[in-house]
Amino acid sequence: MISFASKDLIDLVMAFLWPLTRVLGLIAVAPPFGNRTIPLRIKLGFGIIIALIVTPTPPPFANADALSFSGMMILAQQFVIGLGMGFVMRLVFAAIEMAGTVAGMTMGLGFASFFDPQTRGNTSAVSQFLVLVATVLFFSLNVHHALLLALMDSFKSIPISTTLQSGFDFHRLAIWGEQIFIAGLRLSIPLIAALLLTNVALGILTRAAPQLNIFGIGFSITITVGFLILAAILPYLSIPIENLFQQGIETMQTLGKSPPHQIP
């Protein structure tokens, strides 16, 4: 008859509970897994399946009582690490949303906003369109596989520690936040430049023909030019978006490594 001691049973539960907490932290934030339209049961079931796969892989660690202060702090620590890793990929989609928002406002579609179930706020139509394109590329390029692989590798680079020293680099995570503005501006520059030239041309036309009602035709021209430019550059957006995904995965993989020291 097989028998288990209470200590062995607690060790098994802890070996599963702590990786599960980190996995659920990532799923709660990282798109598209963290989308609010996905039922909570599906997220929890998916997290349990991933945790069952990950549980045998982490290196051995000293066990602690889950009900003790140290055990609760480790539980919170793993959840924060998962949130941080998922936040990296969330910033990638935030940069794409920003590019769509800037492009939509330049086109004159700032008023065309819809309810976004992910952020529970209003976003522009162009922004939602680019996010849908990025989501399709996310799955077609197997970025979700790379995301889960980076999560599994994190248990080696950021091991579960009972000393409350996670080794998680929050500074690198903060630096990654600047990609929202850098990548968002780079993705929207072609459309902004084309519409800038269009507005300059309309200004010259107004000066040449003052009787022309610029407010009557300017709005329709900028929207038309904006959609034409968006359709023209859409096939070329896959490469910068793919590079952005790759940078996000690399950032997730290096969150457990200390940044190089800079010589003043």
UniProtKB/TrEMBL annotation:
GO terms for cellular component: bacterial-type flagellum basal body; plasma membrane. Pfam families: Bac_export_1. Keywords: Bacterial flagellum, Cell membrane, Cell projection, Cilium, Flagellum, Membrane, Transmembrane, Transmembrane helix. The chain crosses the membrane at residues 12-30, 42-61, 67-88, 127-151, 180-202, 214-237. GO terms for biological process: bacterial-type flagellum assembly; protein targeting. It comes from the Bacteria. It is a multi-pass membrane protein. It is found in: Cell membrane; Bacterial flagellum basal body. Role in flagellar biosynthesis. Belongs to the FliR/MopE/SpaR family. This is Flagellar biosynthetic protein FliR. It comes from Undibacterium jejuense. The lineage of its organism: Bacteria, Pseudomonadati, Pseudomonadota, Betaproteobacteria, Burkholderiales.
